[in-house]
Design brief:
The chain is an alpha/beta fold and 302 residues long. The chain has two domains: 64 residues, Winged helix-like DNA-binding domain superfamily/Winged helix DNA-binding domain (Arc Repressor Mutant, subunit A, Orthogonal Bundle), CATH 1.10.10; 211 residues, D-Maltodextrin-Binding Protein, domain 2, CATH 3.40.190. The protein is 36% helix and 23% strand. The protein has ten helices and eleven strands. The strands form two sheets. Strands 3, 4, 5, 6, 7, 8, 9, 10 and 11 form a nine-stranded mixed beta sheet that branches. The chain has a two-stranded antiparallel sheet with strand order 1-2. A hairpin with a 2-residue loop joins β1 and β2.
Amino acid sequence: MQPMHWDDLQFFLSLARTGLLTNAARQLDVDATTVGRRIRRLETSLGGQTLFVQGREGHVLTDAGRRLLGRVETIEREADAIAAGGDQAIGEDVRGRLRVSASEGFGTWLVAHHLGEFATAHPLLTIDLAANSGFLDPSRREADVAILLARPQRGPLITKKLTDYRLRLYAATGYLEQHPPIATRADLSAHRMIGYIPDLLYSPELNYLDELGPAIDARLRSSSINAQYRMIAAGAGIGVLPCFIGDRDQSLVQVLPDLAITRSFWLVTHQDSRHLPRNALFVEWLSSLVHHQRARLLGEGP
């Protein structure tokens, strides 16, 4: 077994966090071939262990890779503490990369709206916000922190309920003025509904229209909640929106306002990285943000 080159661990860490050879190469200011070669050399020095497998969306850590990542992150924390001149207190000169995964709506309308505050408080952090249709998996080290729509049932994860939130039906004022009145759920069948594409739902918790009645089908559909919001705001029809989106737009009106759907967000981190200062600080900040935004999340106030 050949000796380990310690700087190969930096190449490993970069690829584990970015998931793509090209992104790791850009981060390290080398070419992708060099990254691949250094990873292979590290695998050889570890007795031929396979640290990554090639997936559809890039390089994914194997079980051996995940074990090594936990150990390398421990080394990184100690190195940061030494560079800082001793034991690093939480919140003091926290650095590195923090990757956060959130649903498109929550990530765009709540986290992104306030994330600059967190970045200002921790200027040495690089923060990636993946806010899209789908989630990165903390159990596979794809994200440091994830805000999910359902509690994970397995994996080496630390999970806690972040908050409940409510959704209601919304329509533009102009749309309602030009279409039949709506007094009951049954009246919705006479209107164009906007919703998700059923076979592209990335979480069953997004299947809202089934809760409104079996005769209600969406005729305008999108995998994006932001696209649905734009269609509703443009007067294309009626749709379900989280209150923290729908109530922000004063051109929208709640339809059947007594009809509300409740869902939850879950905060998830990997059990081996929950004590990383950057993770702990973000979780603390996000929990405080959600506490102060509780009325907006529940549709109870501005």
